[in-house]
Sequence to fold (265 residues):
Amino acid sequence: MNTIECNQKCTKCSHWKYKDQAPRLSPKKVVDAILSIPSAQELCIVGGEPLLFKEEVYSILEGISHTKIRTIIITNGVPMDEEFIARVSKFNIHIVVSIDTMDREFWRFVRGTNSYDKVFKNLEHASSVLTPAELSIQSVLSAETQPHMEEVAQYAKSKNIYHSIQDYIAEGFEGSWTVLPNKVAFGPRTEQQCYAADRNLSIVQNGNVYTCFQQNWIDGCKEPIGNLNSLSMPEILASYYTALVSQKMRSCNLPCKVLKCNTQN
Ligand SMILES: C[S@@+](CC[C@H](N)C(=O)[O-])C[C@H]1O[C@@H](n2cnc3c(N)ncnc32)[C@H](O)[C@@H]1O
Ligand code: SF4
Ligand code: SF4
Fold:
């Protein structure tokens, strides 16, 4: 999570109300941390709006380009211009663009801005350059967006773009939407561990490392497992506290279990 800052004013998420609180962690430190994990398979770059820092994204992609790691970039689509697509398309990437409606008026409610035309122009270009394996659309499902899902799905289908749906959750995002009682996206069953356990690591903008983004919601796991400004990733992973957090994750069953970064697909 390379920033909390954002150029949209969504009603589902309050990240845009915050400013980063620390100097930026250098892309080199991020790359070193990733390269120190031989089993790493996927890197997800997310925010806030991660493309506010495109140069750093390019540096990270370059730094891990000799590995098999695939990088997923989740964006609101506003800064996803032609130059960005040209520069990242030579790497092993998958871009996820967040689209919750095809309706221009409702878009203003969703995004708090008039970015509809820009996002669809960028998305049209991206879909003309990238392969279906490199681009998808993700929607957030709530009572407000449910009537809009079919139209988004139809649009994605017409462009041969995979469409995923993530349930709206209130926790952590401080949004003002309404959780649906009968969600469509199911996380692992209650008796199963959260898929993030022993698989995910989250590096945030100030260098703090957590297991999952929501680690600090787990009882007794409020503190990060370390900070990359003072420790290397192997040192962080070797600590007793990291082992304790991992153990607690295996029986953790919080609402964030359904977020796509914590599920198998
Ligand atoms: C926090 S955003 C950051 C990346 C980028 N700014 C974007 O909007 O795609 C990451 C993903 O979380 C989704 N999201 C935002 N608020 C959410 C909420 N309250 N519940 C579930 N997903 C949410 C977004 O739609 C996006 O697909
Ligand atoms: S969902 Fe993405 S675009 Fe919307 S405010 Fe949050 S970080 Fe920004
Ligand atoms: S349920 Fe949430 S807090 Fe618990 S391990 Fe999974 S992602 Fe982390």
